[in-house]
Each structure stands twice: as C-alpha cells, then as structure tokens.
Amino acid sequence: MAQPLQAVPPSPAAIRSKGFWIAAVFGCLGIGVVLLLAGSLVIGLLAGLSGDSGHPPPAPPAAASASPADPAEADDFVYDSPNGLHTIAPNRIVAEGVQVTLAGIWREDQRSVTLRLGADGRYELGIGGGASGGRTKYDIVASSSSERGTWTLQGQTLTLSPEGTASTGMAEGKVNSGKGNADPPRAWAVAGVTIEYTPHGSETPRQRPGLRVTGPLPSWHYPPGDMNWVLRRAW
Predict the structure, then answer these.
(1) Separation between Cα atoms, residue 191 and residue 230, nearest integer Å
(2) Residues pairing with 108 in the sheet
(3) Angle at CA of residue 13, ends 10 and 16, nearest 5°
(4) CA-to-CA distance for 150 and 120, rounded, in angstroms?
(5) Prior bond to 223 cis, omega within 30?
(6) Partners of 161 in the beta sheet?
(7) Is the pTM of this model over 0.85?
(8) What whole-number distance in Å separates Cα of residue 218 and Cα of residue 182?
(9) How far separated are the first and last CA of the chain, in Å rounded?
C-alpha cells in the first residue's frame, strides 16, 4: 500500500544552509546600497567643484588688451569755443634755420592753408577762401581750392609738381565745384623754425616745429603774387 505523503521537517543542516543564502543575498543588497550612496556623494562633490551639475562651467571673461593704442595728441594750437569761435594760440618764432622733418601736415591757420607732404613723395595743398555767414543758408559765402601732385626737396628748395586742381564755392544757397588745369612746377624756398605758443587756458608756453615758405602762390589763389608764410606742424 502506498504510504501517504507526510510533511517531513527540514534537517538542522538544511536550515543552516538556507539561512546562509538569505544572509548572503541581504548582505549583497546592503553593500550595493552603500556603494550607490557613496557614488552619489562623490558625484555631488564633483558637481559642486565644477560649478553646476549638468551644465558646463562658465567661460572666463575675456582679458583686456595689455597695451591699448594711445590716442593722438590733441592739437592745442587752436581752440574752438562753445560759441563757435576759432581762436589761434598766441605764438612767436623763437628760432630760425633749425632742422625739421618735412614730411607731415603743415598749417597756416589765419589763411586756412593746409599742406600735406606725404612720405611717398605726394602732396596736397588746400587753401580756404573768405567766408561770411548770416541768418539763412542764402547768406553764407565760402570757397576753397586745392591741388595735388608730387614733391621733391633739393637742399632748401621744395618743388611742387601739380597734377590737377579743384575748387568748391557756396553762394546764394548753391554749391558749385569744378576742376582746373595744373600749374607748371613751382619752387619754394623753405627753412625750419621753432614756434613758441601758449595753449588756451594754460600759462606754460610750448614749442613745435614750423616751416617758413617763400615763393610764388598758385595761379588759382586770390590775390596773386608771392608769399612769405610760416606754417606750423599740425598733430
């Protein structure tokens, strides 16, 4: 006869074996949790050091230029007042026959003359004519003329070889401009001078190079004739 099935109690050895595996499983889970927490802590610390987790650290600000370009020195030989007056600094010649560098910009402020002598051997001569103003643009009368060409220096003689002239005038509210034929080469005697002047608002005199120019005026200049002008270095 078949024996009925009976519930056989586990042996003490089986109980100990089962308890061992349960403890091993929970031990592994505990170690995993500890490692997970430790990893999270390390990631948090690294994120704190980098600035913000999930976002790249901000870029450092751009460094300022260590050697910015120096602005050009202001031309204190003339003063433009708030009311529009153009005032030339009191000046006088304190030395003649001094050595000066010819290439550069030279001005005669009372006659509105500007002579640009380029280091490449080219020049531009501009002379502003008389100007008067009124209440409206129809009362304004002004004119200016200029020429361009090449220049050379032999000893104390500056030779200008014009290539063309241009003029502009305003009268009765209208502006007229035109071009003219070039003059033949023009020879000027030049000599370096030293100009002493006192800038506006200052009591301390300053000095700058000057150029005495003697010779014939351009044919388009009015009135015609010869000149003996002193031009000052402009900067």
Answers:
(1) 9
(2) 113
(3) 95
(4) 9
(5) yes
(6) 150
(7) no
(8) 10
(9) 132
